[in-house]
Amino acid sequence: MSFDAFIQSAWRAHADDTAAVATQLSESLALLQTAEQVPAYVRLVVHVYGEHLGQWAAGSALLAQIEALPLLGHGLAEQALRRGQASLAFCAGNESALQVLNAADRVAALATSATALAGRERLGEGMAALRAACAEAEQVLAAHDDAWRALAVAGNNLALQLEQTAGRTPEQTAAMLAAAETGLACWCRAGTWLEEERAEYRLARSLLQAELPEAASQHAQRCLDICLAHAAPYFEQFFANAVLALAARAAGDAAAFSAHRAQALACHAQLSADDLRWCVAELAELGQA
């Protein structure tokens, strides 16, 4: 199996068979042939051993094995390992692990930690890490520093995780909205129009979960406006129209729901078989399963 095929397969399987993927990661270091491959491997190790398993020490030990491979001397590989090790150590309770990092590495490690801690049902610590990362980023990061992307990913991932949490508490709902807003703000700094419109979609979804349909409609409309301004593919327009329809229905606007539902279904009809598999949940919500 090629390196890329292994990484793709592991991401697909990790949520349903986490322990098996962790074992595969520990036994597949021979697939690492270039320094450029290291960041993708490190991200997966930190995610699986950290957020999913809470096995901080085991994840750190696996990263140490990667550090021992004759692949380094490449800035991005070394950066990924520094950030990954610091995040795992921080989540394990070693706050001093962040102090030896430069500002950009510290922000990125905190952002990764925020998602991992929330995934281990340590939401308060996770949100504190996200706030600390945001505060430091505002003070020290350059406009195009890649750590903004780490913050954006953390915000979006935290928001999605909390949207899917059954029986959310008021504290969790507030955290969900704060995370989605962070994701949007950071993608506006660090991303393309595509990432910005997807962050608008995420915030609209979070607002719907918070039972704030009017605010959800505003962000859903922004999502669609960005799509139309950039002639986005039908795949993106489907989701934009779908969330706008759902927000309209939640707000009691039957005419707007019907109009945007029709637009969403028209976009859906243009999608490839590969794209269709991502649309099942939205289609069911629109009453078209």
Notes on the protein architecture:
With 289 residues, the protein is an all-alpha fold. The protein has a domain at 195-289: Alpha Horseshoe (Serine Threonine Protein Phosphatase 5, Tetratricopeptide repeat), CATH 1.25.40.10. Helix content is 74%, strand content 0%. It contains 15 helices and no strands. It has helices spanning 3-13, 18-27, 38-52, 56-67, 75-91, 103-119, 123-140, 147-163, 170-190, 193-209, 213-229, 234-250, 254-268, 273-276, 280-285.
CATH topology of the domain at 195-289: Serine Threonine Protein Phosphatase 5, Tetratricopeptide repeat
N→C terminal distance: 36 Å
**Class by SSE composition:** mainly alpha
The CATH class designation of the domain at 195-289 is Mainly Alpha
Q: Count all strands and give the number.
A: 0
Helical content, roughly? Answer: over 70%
Give the overall pLDDT as a whole number: 95
Can you write the helix and strand succession as a string?
Answer: HHHHHHHHHHHHHHH
Number of helices, where a helix is a run of at least 4 consecutive DSSP H or I residues: 15
Q: Which percent band covers the strand fraction? A: under 5%
Uncertain ranges: none
Q: Key features?
A:
single chain, 289 residues, Serine Threonine Protein Phosphatase 5, Tetratricopeptide repeat, 15 helices, 74% helix
Concise overview:
By secondary structure, this protein is mainly alpha-helical.
Task: Detail the topology: elements first, then pairings.
Layout: H1 3-13, H2 18-27, H3 38-52, H4 56-67, H5 75-91, H6 103-119, H7 123-140, H8 147-163, H9 170-190, H10 193-209, H11 213-229, H12 234-250, H13 254-268, H14 273-276, H15 280-285
